[in-house]
Amino acid sequence: MNSDDLALFAHVARVGSLSRAALDLGADQSTLSRRIGVLESELGGRLFHRSGRGVTLTERGEQLMLHAERVAAALEEAARELRDSARRGPARLCIAGQPTIARLLFARLAGTVKDALPDTRLHFVEGLASQILSRLDDGEIDIAILYLPERYGGSLNSDRLLTEDLHLVSPRGHPLPDGPVQARSLEGLPLVLPSTHHGLRVLAESLAARCGFSVSVALECDGSLSLTKRLVMASGACTVLPAGAVMEEVAQGTLRSHRIENPAVTREVAVVWPKKSAVTEDLSRITRIIRHCAETLVAEGAWPDARLTP
Q1: What is the pTM assigned to this prediction?
Q2: Same domain, yes or no, for 202 and 78?
């Protein structure tokens, strides 16, 4: 006997007719009658009195009906609690991002998540990819928005959000002309770049190799994005960053931003989470919210030189 058997039995008891129950349930009457017969055999006695006017419960049937009603109520309560839990979302959610992504996305994301999941306690983390990946693997971070490609290995799932262009960023007063620059213009320019295990350094060196020259690294900086920008302002060297990372400084006139062309240099942004994490409705919902926020920022021009991934 299982919950389906109890539900079928209870429906027959409520309508008082096998033919009516079969019609309601979209089943064949003979199949319904056979299932009731199997249930009676299993429980060791008749559950219904049968007559030309329909069926009524026997004493044994009335006992079973009490159990059927309790089981039905318990199942409904469980379903209600799960539906309520799904609407509330997770009790706690930790979202991480690399500095430029965090700067562009997190303020919008915080408001949108709180509107959709008011009972969820949010925790945001900003850091380098290596730091975030380690904490993802340890379970301290639930979901992250990172630049691809990174050395993720096979332990993470990813959902691509958008592609953005990289710019050559120069300090105020630098002799570079305004507007886009050719990739070969980077030859000989002193640059502030991360050390070799970071994505921007790899992208800059790959671009230089394709164009037949080597990058000239004036300073290495694995610190914050703001430190990199301050070093560019103070040293007179340039760097390579997405346009969104320097919007405020460009508006203030303290930095200049030049799209790199021929060839262009791009990075992909993706939502990532551990493969060992079950793909729950909460995870799917958060991913949809992140995508919606990214789409809105791109549409508003608040994520410059970015193109959405279908």
Answers
A1: 0.70
A2: no
